[in-house]
Amino acid sequence: MLSVTPRAADRIREIQAAENHPLPRIRIEVKAGGCSGLIYDLSFATDQRPDELLFTAEGIEILVPKKSLLYLAGTELDYSDGLEGKGFHFHNPNAARTCACGISFAV
Predict the structure, then answer these.
(1) What is the CATH number of domain 3-106?
(2) Taking the domains of the chain in order of start, what are their residue ranges?
(3) Is residue 80 classed exposed, middle or buried when 0-12, 13-18 and 19+ CB atoms within 10 A define those classes?
């Protein structure tokens, strides 16, 4: 359902180790906001909430609230540190448009 590139998985593990998070487990949510209407919220997680589904990709556990799943189906989480911007990037086939900075999207 969701995928994580090896570069993103490596960066998640690096941050996890630097910040002493117990597990390589992240939560990805879609929330209202941004200039296109929806934004991604990516954070470390310890406990699974009752309304969340658990996926594993590249050794990273991913928690996704059920209400966000429709927006995220088929999405790939990548990491880049190149000239076009450093950070995590979501490649979402469901996004009909994104803002210029790539932070928000619409379906």
Answers:
(1) 2.60.300.12
(2) 3-106
(3) middle
CB atoms within 10 A of CB 42: 15
Tokens of 99: 């803002």
Contact at 8 Å (CB) between 9 and 81?
no
Q: End-to-end alpha-carbon separation of the chain, Å?
A: 17
> Using one digit for the tens of pLDDT, what is the confidence trace for 10-65?
999 999 999 998 888 999 999 988 878 889 999 999 899 999 999 999 999 999 99
Structure tokens at 36: 């296109």
SS (H, E, C) 38-94: EEEEEEECCCCCCCEEEEEECCEEEEEEHHHHHHHCCCEEEEEEECCEEEEEEECCC
**Contact between residue 49 and residue 62 where contact means Cβ atoms under 8 Å apart:** no
Q: How does 55-64 read in b/e, with b if 16+ C-beta sit within 10 Å?
A: bebbebebbb
